[in-house]
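pinging the channel bc i need a second pair of eyes. not urgent but kinda urgent?? the chain im working w is below, pasted from the shared doc
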Amino acid sequence: MKRIGFLISLIVLSISSISARIIQGEVRSDSDSTIVVGATCRLMSGTQFIDGVQTENDGKFELSTSLKTKLTLEISMVGYNPTEILIESDKNVDIGTVYLSEGVMLDEVQVNANSMIDAKGRTVIFPAGSDVRASSTAISLFQKLPLAGLEANPINRSLSVDGGTPFILINGVPSTMEDFNALQPKDIAKIEFSRITPARYADRGNKGFLNITLKKRNDGGQVYIWGRSAVNTAFVDGNVRASYHQGPSQFTLSYNPSWRNYQKVFDNSTESYIGSDFRVDLEVHDRNPFYYHNHFTSLKYDYSPNINTLFSAKFSIAPFFNKSRSLANTIDSYLGDYENDNMTRNKDLSPSLDLFFKRNFNDKNSLEVQVVGTMSSSDYRRSNKYFFSDGADLEYIMDVDSRRRSLISEISYTHQFSDKTSLSAGYQNTVSHSTNSYLTTDYKPILTENNNYVYARLGQQVGKVYFSLATGAKLYWIKNDLNKRHFIRNLTTAQLSWNISQKWYLAAAFQYTPSIPSLSALTDYPQQQTPYLISNGNPDLKVSQNFLYQLMPSFQYKKFSASFLMNYRHIKDFVMSDMFYLGDKMFLSQSINAKRSLYAGGNLNLKLSDLYGFGANVNIGIDYYETMGETWCHHLTSLDGSFSIWWNKGPYTISYWRKIPGKYLSGNYVGKDENGDSFSFEYKPNKHWTFEASWMYMFDKKGTKYPSWGYSSVNPYFKERYIKNNGNMIVLSVSYSADFGSLFRTSRRSLNNADSGSSLLKM
C-alpha cells in the first residue's frame, strides 16, 4: 500500500508539473542594456499574488503557475520605473528581454529609494532621493555614497581612490573632472564603482573606476550654470554646460573656468646637505604668492542614425596660465644670510580632437574604434636669484619651450557567448613626437615614443560566484635624444566576487601592473637650481613591479551599509627621488630604483541614510608603509579618515564634511595629506535655482597645511607650507538649470579625450 501511495503521489506531482505554465525572461536597463540584478518579478491574478522571484546575476527570472487564466507580470526595481505585462496565453511564455527605464524626478522629489548592489566585482548604487535632495553638486552627492576608498573633496572639487585619480566614464564615455563637475545630482541614475581599474584601462596609470549612468531625459536640451566665489580671498570657479539635439544629432558645449590669486602662502623649512667632505645647514622662511587661471572648453557632436550606430566628434582646448614667486630669507651656515627671489611662469595649451565610432552588430557582438589627436605646447620660464650681503648675486635660469604631437588610437571588440560568459579584447597605440628647446643652451632634444597595449578579458558567472581574468602585453619603445629604451611587460588582473546573500557580499582581487618610466623621468639634461643643487633625469631607470592583493567584504541592511577593504601591495624596484653628493660642494637630485616598497592597510566605510532627514557617511583607515634601499629601511604607521553628516528638510540642507589627514611614506619622503573641512547651508527655492553658503577651514588661521620631512642621510629636512588665504574662507555659490525638448542617449566609448602626457621635466 505504501508503494502504491508513493506511486500515486509521484503521478500527481508529475501531472501538476507538466500542466504548470512557465513564464520566463530577463531584465535589462534601457539606458545602456546592462543586466538588472535583484529586480522583483511578481505574477498576479487580479489582486491575488501567485508567484514571485528576483532576477539572478544574469538578469533572468522564471515563474510558474497552474492557472490558465489571464495574468499580470509586475517587474520593479529601486532606481527604475516599474512595468506591467499582460500574459494572455495559457501556455509557457518567454517574455524575452524587458527593458526598465530609470526613476524620474517630480518637482525635485525622486520616486526611488536607496539601493546598493554588489555584482561582478563592482558596487552598483542607485542614489536615494533623500541623498539627491540634500546635494547641490555631483561632488556633494558622492560625499554621501558608501564607496570605501573613494574621497570626494568639496573644496578642491576632486575625486580620489586610495590616493590616486580614478578612471571616469559618463554613459560609458571616458570623461574628465570638468565633465563630472558639470553633472547635476538629479540627472544621475546609477553609479558603478570598483577600486580595481579594469583591464581595458589598466595602462592609464589610474586608481579605481567609476561609470556614471545618466537618466534618460524627455526634453530636447539642458542648460546648467554653476559658479562660486570666496568673499575674503581671490577664488572663483565656474561651470557652464548646454546641450541640444535635433533628430539623430546632439550638440554639447561646456566651459569650465577657474581662477586663483593667493598672496598669503608661506613656507618654513630647515634642511641640510651632507657630503663626505662638506656640510651646509639651511633655514628658510619665505612667502610664495601664486596666480593661475584655466579655461577648459569643449564642443561635442554626436550622430546616431539608429540604436546600433554612433559617431562622435569632440574638440577640446584647455588654456592654462600660471605664475608663482618665492620671496625668501635664507640663513646659510656656509654662505651666510641672503635673499632669494625665485620666479616661475608657465603657459600651456592643448587642443585635442577625439573621433569615435561604435557599431553593435547584434546582441552578442560590438565593435568600437577611436582616434584622438593632440597638439600641446608648454612655455616654461623659471629663474632663481640669490642676493648676498656683500653685494654679490647669482642667477640660475631654466627656460624651456616644449612642443608635443601625439596620436592615440584603439580598437575594441566584445562578444557575449551567453549571459554568463563574455570575452573582450582590444589594441591601443600611442605615438608621440616631442621637442624640448632649452633656451639658455640652444639644446633641442627630440623625444619619441611608441606605446602598444594589447589585452584580453574573460568573465564567467557560476551560480552566485563571478570571476574574471584579464591579461595584456605592453610594448613600449622610447627614444630620448641619444638614449633608446625598449620595454615589453605583462599586465594581469584577476577578480572573484561572491553574492553570499542579499545582505552579505565578498570580493577579492589581484593585480600586477609594471610602472614604466616616463619621458620626463628618463630625460638626461642636468639643470642647476640652487648654489648646491643640480637636478636631472635618469635614463637607466628600471621598470617597477607592482603586485596588489585585495579582500573586500560588505554588508547592507535597510538604511545601513558597511564595507571593509584589506590591501597589501609589494613593489619591486620602487622608483623614488634621492640625493647624492657629487663633490666640490654640489649635490644631485635624481630618481632611482630602491629595493622595495611595502604597503598594508585597512579601510572601513559606514553609512546611515535618511533617518528623519539625517544621514552620515564615515571612512576610517589604518596604513602601514615600509621602504627599503641598499643601506636603509624606513617604517610608518598612520591613521586617516573622513566623515560627512547632513540634514535635509524641504528646500533646506545643512551639511558638514571633515577630512582627517593621514601620513604616507615614499622612499625617504614622508608627507601628510591636505587637511580640510566645510560647513554648508543650502537653499533650493524651486527646481531651477540653488543657493549655498559654505565656511571652509573653520577656526584655522593657517588654512591649508602641507607638512613634510625627509629621512635621507644626505639631505634630511623638515618643511611646512600653509596657505593662509584659505583660512576661515567664506564661499558663496549659485546654480541655475533648465530643461527642454528631448535628448537621445549616447553610447559607450573608450580612451581618453586628450593626451595628458608630457616630455618635460619641470623643477
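so Helices lie at 2-19, 129-133, 138-142, 177-181, 519-522. and The CA atoms of residues 380 and 397 lie 11 Å apart. — does that match what u expected or am i reading it wrong
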